[in-house]
Write a structure and sequence with these properties.
This protein is of the alpha+beta class. About 65% of the residues lie in helices and about 10% in strands. It has 24 helices and 13 strands. It has a four-stranded antiparallel beta sheet with strand order 3-6-2-7. α2 packs antiparallel against α11.
Length: about 775
């Protein structure tokens, strides 16, 4: 390897113009594919086509009306929906909402199809008509119906009558989900602005699945537009201060930009669809590109400051760093490739894109960066660099005098803090991804507090034959299940077909309240249902609750602001109830819904990410053992590779305890810098031991001098950069930024406090 790196270093410095032109040409060719990248607003990309939960969800969508929605929550200033003016405003907005692009249904208290009996005749009509002509008695009657009807209360009207909702159901073609979402939301925003101008005493809050999808898209775009540039700016400033060279900083940033451009370009050429996980690929590539660049140019700058010519300094830097950089980049790339074992397609894509980007960053750092550094005119040599080495020398002396205290102290600290890892649980609450300053979060919190929930769990309750939903036994069991759901602590409201049948039975018995119960015969139920359906206007039929051949009905549970673990627990209890009490009369494939699907995939993905990280660390440690040809030091390397993530997740367990998809990825995202620190330190130590014949203590001094300074430079810049990301209003990004910063900090501290002590503990020979 030494002979190869020597020849390679000579070739690069001799053919620097050829290296520059060839590298740039290849990067440009790859980067051109970036214009082919597309962004998806369809949550289905998170699931494989054969995912059973996705298949159940799509079957539900085919059998019944789709559930994508925009919910308009109306809050009158006088806190009374049931006034003439407020009801007129509800009717106005309900009518206007039908014009929303892709809308197929609009539900509100005004167009609620209220049924009443007139002798043997069933009348079905809008609950509210001609509001300005209503008397006080009419208003009281309408209010009484709305706040007590189980199909309206806690769904479209608050029980206290102070807030109401208008639910717009949309069915998007899916040809370009991002544009379709934007089109619908743009119309809804304009509708809201126009309405609030006409009715300044009524405030509208907009939430729902479509608004949540739009909020996800906007959060990602805003962070990429604002925070990432701030992050890059801080990284540039800190690198200039640390490296004392505009040229070196510029070349490191060039390597970052080119590596990311090449990786995302190749992603475009291979028709990759951008999603939230894939959008984090540039951050991970950035970590390795910075680490590689800092090691290469710090070593070069150190040699130049000690009187070595620029050409010889670059040759020596390439020779010294080529092997450890190749090893860390290859092992990191292999680690990311193991993400192809994930059940979540975007994470598979993320692994492939990052693995490619990491290797591109390596080749740029050992080829283009050295070539350009020699092509550019030499900068001024700064003597301030020596102060860093004096500081490092003082630390070396302090460490060697207190080596075992620092080692065992750090091990004890790791054991204590690491024990809190068990306090973490894989959990999500999707609306909490957005902080309380965002409009979507404020609208959702208001709706949750004053009207209804935003998390839905659907059940398709199936009969044994077509028309079976009219069987008394089927209706009775479905009603029992509905009542059981209402008793569950996670459930706010249950929308069930049996409530319609109870109301119809009451209507057909002269509206006798005592007859608010299910029909006693199949014939009566069928007659009631047919009569009711014939009375419904277009767009407000029962296709959202009953399938075509009337062999199944959809039951929807609206949940409080639950977390994913609570949602999954409810699903398991519901499935157990159906299995134990269905008695062969009703059956169901179980609960489904977008929120439930993500709850499952979030938990499974979180577990696989953490398990995968442990496996990768073990694999990398074995590879380190083979690369450095030392079993003892290979075993030692496992400790600093495991410790940073263990400590970071331990701190997270103490402070938060909730791991979302972003936090689960941190271990893998930061693994590159952790392995990089370990490998460079061991490489420099073994160079001093094997090639220079130094004692363990002197070899440590050399390793601190050559690897310690670059390590702290990259640590400082990356930590500050990721702390900028931690200021995001989007929790997945802010949590990722914060935990990554913590992990990288612990990685540097581990290399400074723990690894040297472990090395001295196992390597006591004078010669190696």
């Amino acid at each position: 390897m030494n002979n190869f790196t020597r020849q390679y270093a000579n070739w690069v410095v001799t053919h620097k113009w050829l290296v520059t032109l060839l590298t740039l040409a290849m990067i440009v060719a790859m980067a051109l594919g970036a214009k082919r990248l597309t962004m998806s607003g369809d949550y289905r990309i998170f699931f494989k086509p054969d995912n059973p939960q996705l298949q159940a969800f799509e079957a539900m969508q085919k059998a019944y009306t789709k559930s994508d929605n925009i919910l308009l929550t109306l809050a009158p200033a006088d806190k009374n929906v049931f006034t003439r003016n407020n009801l007129a405003a509800v009717i106005e907005l309900t009518d206007a909402a039908w014009q929303t692009p892709f809308s197929i249904r609009v539900d509100s208290i005004s167009n609620y199809q209220n049924s009443v009996a007139d002798g043997d005749t069933l009348h079905v009509d809008d609950l509210v008509k001609h509001p300005q002509t209503l008397t006080a008695a009419d208003l009281a009657r309408i209010r009484n119906i709305a706040v007590h009807d189980p199909l309206l209360a806690k769904r479209l009207i608050a029980e206290n009558g102070q807030v109401t909702g208008i639910n717009i159901t949309l069915q998007m073609p899916g040809k370009n989900k991002v544009k379709e979402i934007q089109q619908a939301v743009k119309f809804a925003n304009a509708l809201k602005a126009k309405f609030e101008t006409r009715h300044p005493d009524i405030k509208i809050y907009m939430t729902g699945v479509v608004m949540m999808n739009y909020a996800f898209l906007e959060a990602t775009r805003n962070d990429m537009k604002h925070l990432v540039p701030y992050m890059m700016g801080i990284l540039a400033l800190l690198l200039v201060i640390s490296l004392r060279s505009f040229q070196a900083t510029g070349l490191i940033f060039l390597s970052i930009v080119l590596s990311i451009a090449a990786a995302m370009g190749v992603a475009g050429w291979t028709d990759v669809i951008l999603s939230a996980p894939v959008a984090t690929a540039p951050l991970t590539i950035l970590i390795m590109a910075i680490a590689d660049g800092v090691h290469m140019l710090s070593h070069y700058g150190h040699n130049v400051r000690h009187g070595v010519s620029r050409v010889e300094a670059m040759k020596e830097s390439i020779q010294s760093n080529f092997a450890p950089m190749l090893f860390t980049n290859v092992t990191s790339a292999l680690g990311y490739l193991t993400m192809n074992m994930s059940d979540v397609p975007p994470f598979q894509t993320l692994g492939n894109v990052v693995a490619f980007g990491i290797m591109v960053a390596f080749f740029i750092t050992v080829g283009l960066v050295p070539a350009l550094m020699l092509i550019l005119p030499g900068g001024k040599v700064h003597s301030q660099e020596e102060s860093k080495f004096k500081l490092m020398e003082r630390y070396q002396n302090f460490f060697l005098n207190h080596r075992y205290k620092m080692l065992f102290g750090s091990l004890l600290f790791t054991a204590v803090v690491g024990s809190f890892v068990t306090q973490n649980k894989f959990d999500d609450s999707f609306h909490e991804y957005f902080d309380k300053t965002t409009e979507f979060r404020q609208a959702t919190d208001f709706t949750l507090q004053h009207l209804t929930g935003v998390y839905l769990m659907d059940f398709s309750i199936e009969a044994s034959k077509p028309g079976g939903i009219n069987e008394p036994a089927f209706l009775q069991k479905t009603d029992e299940f509905s009542n059981w759901l209402r008793q569950q602590p996670e459930v706010l409201h249950v929308n069930t077909f049996t409530d319609i049948m109870k109301r119809l039975n009451k209507n057909m018995h002269a509206d006798d309240p005592a007859q608010y119960k299910l029909p006693e015969s199949r014939e009566l139920a069928a007659q009631y249902l047919l009569l009711y359906e014939l009375s419904l206007p277009y767009g407000l039929d029962l296709t959202n609750q009953i399938n075509i051949d009337k062999s199944a009905t959809k039951l929807t549970a609206t949940l409080y602001a639950v977390h994913s673990t609570q949602m999954i627990a409810l699903e398991e209890r519901a499935n157990a109830w159906l299995k134990a009490h269905g008695d062969g009369i009703i059956k169901s494939s179980g609960g489904t819904g977008a929120g439930l699907m993500f709850a499952h995939v979030g938990q499974e993905n979180g577990k696989s990410m953490l398990e995968g990280e442990v496996i990768q660390i073990l694999q990398i440690s074995v590879l380190i053992m083979l690369a450095i040809r030392s079993f003892k030091l290979g075993i030692v390397s496992m400790v600093p590779n495991i410790t940073p993530a263990l400590l970071a997740y331990g701190v997270w367990g103490m402070a938060v305890g909730q791991i979302n998809m972003g936090v689960a990825m941190v271990g893998i995202i930061s693994l590159g810098i952790v392995v990089d620190d370990t490998m460079h330190f061991l490489s420099k130590y073994l160079t001093a031991r094997r090639e220079m014949g130094r004692t363990p203590e002197d070899a440590l001094r050399y390793a601190f001098d050559m690897a310690g300074i670059p390590m702290w430079i990259s640590t400082l810049t990356l930590v500050c950069g990721f702390l900028v990301l931690a200021s995001s209003h989007f929790a997945m990004n802010s949590d990722t930024g914060l935990v990554t910063a913590i992990t990288i900090t612990f990685a540097a501290l581990t290399e400074a406090f723990m690894l040297p002590g472990l090395i001295l503990l196992v390597d006591r020979k004078k010669k190696i």
